[in-house]
Amino acid sequence: MPVTVLNKLLKQAESLTRKEQLHLAICLINKAYQPETSTLKWKDICGLIPYHALGEDAQDWVSRNRTESDSREKQWVNR
Question: Which residues, other chains included, contact 27 with Cβ-Cβ below 8 Å and sequence gap of 6+?
Fold first, then answer.
């Protein structure tokens, strides 16, 4: 929201009574805490991050974590 719109709304709120201002504030806070109705789907965000954006190939990450997990599991079995 542009600052000018926000300033205009604040200026309009000044003409309200204190009780109306509190009611407006409560309504805005309640609206802000409501969960968003639109949810993203994986297909909506697919391709937004360039390849290697996180510095590691996905398959390399999976392989490394499997190897680390296997070695930790062997340590527990050998005890």
Answer: none
Tally of CA atoms within 13 A in the half-sphere of 53 that contains its CB: 5
E strands present in 1-79: none
Domain ranges of the chain: 3-77
* Mean pLDDT, range 31-46, rounded to an integer: 78
Residue 71 CA to its chain's centroid (Å): 34
Q: Under the phi-then-psi rule, with left for phi > 0, alpha for psi from -120 to 50, and beta for the rest, what region is 40?
A: beta
- Is the pTM here over 0.70, yes or no? no
Structural contact between residues 52 and 60, judged by C-beta atoms closer than 8 angstroms: no
